[in-house]
Design goal:
Elements: E1 4-7, E2 10-11, H1 17-24, E3 33-41, E4 46-53, H2 55-72, E5 88-97, H3 101-119, E6 123-127, H4 138-142, H5 145-152, E7 174-178, E8 183-189, H6 194-204, E9 214-221, E10 226-233, H7 241-253, E11 259-265, H8 270-281
Parallel strand pairs: 5-7, 6-7
Antiparallel strand pairs: 1-4, 1-5, 2-4, 2-5, 3-4, 8-10, 8-11, 9-10
Helix pairs in contact: 1-2, 2-3, 6-7
């Protein structure tokens, strides 16, 4: 059976549709890969792509897409609400079918090595691919963002795993790794006060004593005049989406603020939604096997 690997690269471009078309072109109409989803966000100024395929085909397409992004994105002129350090900010590989995490790590290292060679790009390995424990957490690598990365990389402990020891002048640096499926989950609040979203995010995220496997930050949505708590759930099997949602709703009440909506960015495992639906409906002994689509043979 074919080994299936998923990749969810994040690019620092969410506004220029022509540039976005160039970035995603390598994922289209190629043997061995399938483009599942693209989501662009103008406030975050970020593009999230979801693509699956055989390891070799996916590796080739990803390296090509990185080259397209480096050619059209200049971080010296980039502004957006989402933290970023590179034109190709992060490239995670996720095992899907008949492939181990160790194999996903090997592919991530191959992509990192080839992209650094072709594009003179410094690359850090993170999560399961990390070369040292302090580099597992993407937030630790990204701290300082593009503007602070040149100074940060002068320290011996922040030499990149691949590529030159200084940032690419326009494309910055990139993180490449292998990880569990991640759910990007945003909760919107009926206030324009970023300090409130930041305060709620601090209580939610694990690093500050909040929920395990939860990363969170406050983000301003300029066009809508509101703020959101932007969340990455790094292991939905251990901390459910409904737990994060309810905690944010509880903490929002402390400020007299209401939740006005939420969104999933990119694709989400069905099990994460089944778990949440079972909670809110009070279903007893419910499992994904009771979902019709899981029993269909195509």
């Amino acid at each position: 059976m074919n080994k299936i690997l998923e990749c969810v690269p994040n690019f620092s471009e969410g506004r220029n549709r022509e540039n976005i078309a160039k970035i995603i072109a390598p994922f289209k109409d190629k043997a061995g890969i399938r483009l599942l989803d693209t989501q662009r966000d103008e406030d975050h100024n970020r593009l999230v792509v979801t693509v699956i395929g055989t390891p070799e085909a996916l590796k080739t397409a990803m390296i090509e897409a990185m080259g397209e992004a480096i050619a059209v994105i200049d971080l010296r002129r980039h502004q957006g609400q989402h933290p970023r350090m590179g034109a190709v900010d992060v490239v995670p590989f996720i095992p899907v079918k008949d492939i181990t995490m160790a194999e996903a790590v090997d592919i991530s290292k191959a992509v990192a090595a080839e992209a650094s060679r072709q594009y003179n790009l410094p690359v850090f390995l993170y999560e399961a691919s990390a070369s040292r424990p302090e580099r597992r957490n993407l937030a630790a690598i990204r701290k300082g963002q593009f503007e602070g990365m040149a100074e940060k990389m002068k320290a011996p402990e922040w030499m990149p795993d691949y590529g030159p020891p200084e940032i690419h002048p326009s494309a910055g640096v990139t993180a490449v790794g292998a990880r569990m499926p991640l759910v990007a989950f945003n909760v919107n609040l009926d206030t324009d006060r970023l300090d409130i979203a930041d305060g709620i995010a601090r209580r939610a995220r694990h690093i500050n004593g909040g929920l395990r496997y939860c990363k969170a930050m406050g983000v301003r949505l300029q066009d809508r005049g509101i703020v959101q708590v932007s969340i990455n759930m790094t292991d939905y099997t251990q901390t459910a989406l409904y737990q994060a949602f309810e905690l944010i709703r509880i903490e929002a009440r402390r400020y007299g603020v209401n939740v006005v909506g939420s969104e999933i960015v990119g694709l989400v495992p069905m099990a994460a939604l089944v778990d949440t639906a079972a909670y809110y409906l009070g279903l007893e002994d419910f499992s994904a096997e009771q979902v019709l689509e899981t029993r269909l043979e195509i």
